[in-house]
Structures are given as structure tokens and as C-alpha cells.
Amino acid sequence: MALEIKLLDYGDIELESSFLVLARDCGRVRRVPVYGFLILGGRYPVVVDTGYRDNAIMETLGMRGLQFHENMIERQLARHNVKVGDVRYVLHTHLHIDHAGKDDHFPMNTTVVINRREMEHSVSGLMHPQYPKPDIQHLVERLHTRHALRFEDLEITGPIEIMPGVVLDAANAHTEGSMNVHVETAEGRATLCGDVIYDFNDQIVEPLYQVNAHEPQVTGNHAGSKRGEKAAIKKLLATSKFLLPVHDKPAKIEGGQVVGRLDMQVPGPITQTVPRRDWFPA
């Protein structure tokens, strides 16, 4: 059976626009979704990212959380007839405040999987307070509980298949330990890319303030270099048929370009067609 990806709607956040796309609408607030993902069709359900802990914790970053009862992870999983105890793995693209806030809702026999460098980065202070204390403390508890936590060293090993059709790969962007999750679906490879991409339109389709062909705009929130972030985005565009970030609707990719947008599942219907750009105008 081919694997399928369902979006889990964890609510929204309001934040300053240029945090998402460098130099965009500085000082203006933008509302964006916070998604997680449920991988179905394998031996057991797998969750990728768990959203933020509660609305109050987002205020520590000067952001506003908009999470309601229907956005609770238990209710989102129940829409697909899955309980938290059914989930074998929780995979993390990274451990920021809006990605790892509900790990403590899962029992200790659910294994949380992260890139080891991301755990190190989370306690380095380099992006504090985007790694809040209660989230990281819970992971330390898992660190000392048998089989509750699994580390990968993706920068050294290269891609790792965690189960048939699901491969983990170092993202090399956003945070020092971010990872991509590649999923083989009936329609091709879909990549859950965390925050390597925040906004398809202003970063890729019509990249803000960029004049060079095929040159993505970077985010306003990354631990590494602009060169590294641009390269990571280009690699995703070159290697996956579907891209699923956490703060924007999924996109279909052809020839390194965004050609369509999807709604709440992959594979799924195209809800918006994006005209192809001619990178070599006459």
C-alpha cells in the first residue's frame, strides 16, 4: 500500500511578516497556519512535528497563538481514526517552539526521532528562546528513558530509511540540525521540509527583491548562512515532486518550479494552478 500524508491543523500564529520572508512588510503582522503531518499506509502511523504547547507560550517570542479545541493533537489524529498511543514514531524536522510542543502527549513507548545536531543546537543558546524550557526538558526525560528517543547523525551517515518509504535527510538550513522527511507516495516523492521554506509565493514563485533567475528569497529566521538556505531550497525544488512546509499549503513541483498548490493531503487534488515561469525569456 502506498503511503499517504495527511495535514494536521494545529492552529495559527500571528507574527511579524519579515520574520518569515526577509525584508517583507517590516513591522506588519501576518497570520500563518501551523501544520503537522500524519503518514499513513505503512505498518503503523507516523507523526511529523507536534505544534506549539499552548497560546501563552507563543507570547515569549512576541507572537500570538491562535490554537483552539479542534486544533488539539488528539482531535486532529482522531479525524483519521488514529490515537496517540497508535503512533510508533514522532519525527521532528527541528525542535523550535511551534514544532515540538506536544511531544509529552505521546507515551514513552512512542519513539521521538531527531537529528542529534538539533538536540545540541537546542541547548546552545544560539536561537534562544525559540527552544522553550518545558519542551526541551521533556526531551531530556526521553533521553533517559529506554527507546523513548532516537538520534540520527544525518550529516555523517547521509539519508536514513526509518521505515519502508520514509527517509530522513539533513536539511542543511534553518537550524543547525534541521532534517527533511521524504515520503514515497503513489504520485511520487513528497518532502516534509519544516521551515526551510516559509512562503512559496514570496520566496519562490515571485521571490521578493530578487533579480537573478531561479534565485529564491531567504527567510528572516535562520541559524546558518543565506547561501546555505538558498542552496537547501534549490535542492528541494530539484529532488521532490511535492513540498510540504509547516506554515504554508503544500506545493506540486515540476522542473524545479511550483506549478500547483494542494490542500490538506498528499496525494490530493490540485486546488490552485501556478503558471510556469520561463527562466530564459527572449
From TrEMBL:
<protein>
    <submittedName>
        <fullName>MBL fold hydrolase</fullName>
    </submittedName>
</protein>
<dbReference type="Pfam" id="PF00753">
    <property type="entry name" value="Lactamase_B"/>
</dbReference>
<dbReference type="InterPro" id="IPR001279">
    <property type="entry name" value="Metallo-B-lactamas"/>
</dbReference>
<keyword id="KW-0479">Metal-binding</keyword>
<dbReference type="InterPro" id="IPR036866">
    <property type="entry name" value="RibonucZ/Hydroxyglut_hydro"/>
</dbReference>
<comment type="similarity">
    <text>Belongs to the metallo-beta-lactamase superfamily.</text>
</comment>
<keyword id="KW-0862">Zinc</keyword>
<keyword id="KW-0378">Hydrolase</keyword>
<dbReference type="GO" id="GO:0016787">
    <property type="term" value="F:hydrolase activity"/>
</dbReference>
<feature type="domain" description="Metallo-beta-lactamase">
    <location>
        <begin position="33"/>
        <end position="247"/>
    </location>
</feature>
<dbReference type="InterPro" id="IPR051013">
    <property type="entry name" value="MBL_superfamily_lactonases"/>
</dbReference>
